[in-house]
Amino acid sequence: MSQPDFSHDGARTARGTAFRYLFMLCALLSILTTVAIVATLLVDAVDFFSDVSFVEFLTGTRWSPTNEPVSFGVLPLISGTLVITVGAALVALPIGLLTAIYLSEYASERQRSYLKPALEVLAGVPTVVYGYFALVYVTPALDTFLPLSTFNALSASIMVGIMIIPMVSSISEDAMSAVPDSLRQASYGLGATKFTVSTSVVVPAALSGIFSSFILALSRAIGETMIVAIAAGQTPRLIDVTDPAGLFLNSIQTMTAAMVQIGTGDLVGQGPAYKSLFAVGLTLFVITFVMNLISEFVASRYREVYR
Questions:
Q1: What is the Cα–Cα distance from 84 to 294, expressed in whole angstroms?
Q2: How many C-beta atoms lie closer than 10 Å to residue 61's C-beta?
Q3: 22, 35, 74, 261: most buried by Cβ count inside 10 Å?
Q4: CB contact at 8 A, 48 and 275
Q5: Are the CB atoms for 284 and 255 separated by under 8 Å?
Q6: Are 203 and 177 in contact (CB under 8 A)?
Q7: Degrees (nearest 5) of the Cα angle 265, 270, 271?
Q8: pTM score
């Protein structure tokens, strides 16, 4: 009778243990990278707030880190970021959701095999290309019937919206495809049309994934840099909600564009103007972090309903 090969089992166990620790190391590395980024932002932001009042930073209505009189009010940058985000949402969310419904419920396998990869090509286009396209083509086209500035929020919002459409449509389509066919067949058995099944059964059942796609896409829009830096301009101004046309027709500046301007400018590394880069970055991180927490909370609630 042959003896069991314990050496082979031992080698396999050792190999499994090695891979386990390797995977754990990769997970820890990603966590440590995030912690290091946050710590760096915190250290330099705290140093900035030792020179500039935290209340002044959050409530100030003028952003001028280099020109006299110097002011570090972040509200104009936040308002500019919100304008771009809202404009991009108006473009991307309905188009992305309708595209996802078509791909999931109406398109054949052959059509889906062509359309989905073609749509996702948009996600691979460099954002600097989107920015120059907005500046060179979109703005002149819109200027034929709108009184636009050379740099404006409207063309930047449109291009940011186009950029995040693949994120909305792809994640939403995956969520809809995961809905059990039994729900569809039950609705068809009751005499429902495909449109009714798509909008009244599939979309509500996949709402957690759809909402998550919205939040992820908007987080991507908030953090977009090159499109807004090229097409939206560098004019920090507090938005006037009583003038809807002026929100999008004029030049604005977002938080990311301000960070680019500060980081590439001729500023002293130890001065408050340079350190404000980290305070703005920390503000941007907190906003996107809160949005992700809201996404997780809402998605978990809907999972409870449709489980």
A1: 20
A2: 13
A3: 74
A4: yes
A5: yes
A6: no
A7: 65
A8: 0.84
Measured CA to CA, the distance from residue 206 to residue 208 in angstroms comes to 6
The amino acid at 196: T
Which single residue is written with the structure tokens 């009714």? Answer: 196
The CA distance from 237 to 217, in Å, is 25
Residue count of the chain: 307
- Residue 4 pLDDT: 55
Helix axis angle for 6-49 and 272-306, nearest 10°, is: 130
Place of tokens 């309903």: 305
Other beta carbons less than 10 A from residue 266's beta carbon = 5
Alpha helix (H) ranges present in the chain?
6-49, 54-59, 75-101, 109-120, 127-133, 139-143, 153-177, 181-189, 194-197, 203-205, 207-222, 226-231, 244-249, 255-264, 272-306
* Distance, CA of 276 to CA of 73 (rounded, Å): 10
